[in-house]
Amino acid sequence: MVFIIATLLMVLFGDVRQAARLSDVRQSACLSTFTHDTRQAGRLSYFFGGEKYDLPAGARIIETQAITSPAHPNRALILWMLSPKDNPCEHCPEGYTCPDYTRGHYFSGPTRVSLVDTKTNKIINTIKVNADQAEPNEDSFDVPYKIQRGLSYFVAGSRKESKPVIMRLRDLNDDGKSLEFVLYDAQTCALMNTALIGYSESKDKVIHYPVVLNWQSEGKRETITSDWADRLFQQKSIKSGVWKYQVDYRGRGGTLDKYEVRYNAKSERFEGNVISKP
User: Fold this and answer.
1) Which of these, 276, 275, 273, lies nearest to 260 by C-alpha position?
2) In degrees to the nearest 10, what's the CA dihedral of 213, 247, 229, 133?
3) Which candidate among 113, 147, 181, 225 keeps its CA 20 to 30 Å from the CA of 208?
């Protein structure tokens, strides 16, 4: 406050250069305070627009997204990674391969989504993000920081490649609330795995939306529960809370898979049946 008053007085009395120097001193003092206060007991406190969040040392915030919730105001989502590795795509300017559709130029490493209280700056809960079919001890995901428009993640502007919006909140479970976003993971040209993450108002937590599918193939039945589903969250519902689509792998010696999936609002999960035929 003393810095501010002194600076205003100097500006009023014409000593602009001295005011500018004092402003620089104030900024340096703030920076010193930031550097001094942010590392404690192996953790790192991040300041963004006046907000402070306690994350592990080595954490890097990729994106933040405010939540609109009358029931629980002052909420935001943070996408962050732990000591991520930078993986620039050298061949992408010439052309994308299928796995590049969801990666482009990307960071890889342990990935988390946290729900925070923006008033108290406290982390409410955190979920882990792993690729589909990851090993039990595996802890890594690929998050693009520059990618081509129109392939998976939303990219604003007119440039062919640019920074994507990962946590693009929309109403993706047809409950009338824009509180969910999609993660994409194309391991091959055949599979476009999608996962839904969002804010649960009833739990006041960030959650994975699990997908429970009853598979029927050649007389055999199997129930599989996963955070990932092929192309599901790219689809538009045929009516509120119901998705129906098919994926044809027969050109690659696979099967024709017909999906019918419904959202169970009470359980906050997707449930459905898949009929798979050669």
Assistant:
1) 273
2) 100
3) 147
Asked, for residue 29, whether it belongs to a domain, the answer is yes
Q: Which range marks the domain in which residue 17 is found?
A: 1-37
C-alpha closest to that of 54 among 2, 116, 135, 138: 116
pTM of the model: 0.82
Residue 101, C-beta contacts closer than 8 angstroms, at least 6 positions apart: 151, 152, 184, 186, 192
Distance CA 275, CA 278 (A): 10
The answer to whether 52 and 64 are in contact (CB under 8 A) is no
**pLDDT tens figures, 232-249:** 999 999 999 999 999 999
Kindly tell me the burial class for residue 276, based on how many C-beta atoms sit within 10 Å of its own C-beta (0-12, 13-18, 19 or more). middle
- Within-domain flag for 17: yes
Give the model's confidence band at 194: pLDDT under 50 very low, under 70 low, under 90 confident, else very high. Answer: very high
Tokens of 150: 């129109």
The rounded distance, in Å, linking the Cα atoms of 143 and 202 is: 28
Residue 7 lies in a domain: yes
Domain total of the chain: 1
pLDDT at 158 over 60: yes
- The answer as to whether 8 is a domain residue is yes
Report phi then psi at 136, rounded to 5.
Answer: -55, -35
Mean pLDDT, to the nearest integer, of 105-120?
A: 97
Residue 7 φ then ψ, to 5° = -65, -45
The alpha-helical segments, DSSP class H, found in 13-114 are: 16-37
Provide the 3-class DSSP secondary structure of residue 27. helix
Token pair of 217 as six digits: 């193939």
pLDDT of residue 53: 86
Residue 39, CA atoms < 13 Å, CB-side half-sphere = 7
In the predicted structure, residue 45 carries a pLDDT above the cut 80: no
3-state helix, strand, coil in the chain (%, to 5): 15, 45, 35
